[in-house]
Design brief:
Radius of gyration: 23 Å
Helix content: over 70%
Distance between the termini: 81 Å
Largest sheet: none
Length: 163
């Protein structure tokens, strides 16, 4: 076999080996407005899907489930507290009670801050159990879902609809 034919054969094998890497990077290169961004968000909000996507070991999946349960317990209580806080704010706004509106606004701000802190705690602890390759995939997934973007900042967060 001539040297040029051997070089061509080596180049072909290397190209074949690079195809999965190129396909993976192309899979992450899409518009966030497409449904794919929603799919990334769905993976991030379902621990079993996240474990499968990142190919977590049994130990990592168990740790993820513990972290997820803690996150859900913390944020559920905080989200349930938002309803009464919003109701109070609406009533105080209607009554034009400036002092109470300020207190209500601070309550909502603190509630939102606690929810964000719970997510940061989860994210930090979960990231710590990942391998470097898994962490890179997890970071990419968050970028696709636009979780890394602040966007328009609402200091109070959203209120549930009034009944």
């Amino acid at each position: 076999m001539s040297k040029s034919l051997k070089a061509l054969a080596v180049a072909a094998v290397l190209c074949l080996l690079a195809l999965p890497v190129a396909a993976q990077s192309a899979a992450f290169d899409f518009d966030g407005q497409r449904p794919d961004a929603r799919a990334a968000e769905n993976i991030l909000t379902h621990p079993r899907a996240l474990a499968r996507f990142l190919h977590l070991s049994d130990s990592q999946a168990s740790q993820l489930q513990t972290l997820w349960t803690t996150l859900q317990t913390t944020t559920t209580a905080l989200r349930q507290a938002r309803g009464p806080l919003c109701t109070s704010l609406r009533a105080d706004l209607a009554a034009q009670n400036a002092s109470a509106v300020g207190t209500d606004a601070l309550g909502l701000f603190n509630n939102k801050s606690q929810i964000e802190a719970a997510f940061r705690t989860f994210d930090t602890a979960f990231s710590a159990i990942l391998t470097p390759a898994q962490l890179a995939q997890y970071t990419t997934l968050k970028q696709i879902a636009h979780l890394d973007e602040a966007g328009e900042y609402n200091p109070l967060g959203a209120c549930p609809p009034a009944h």
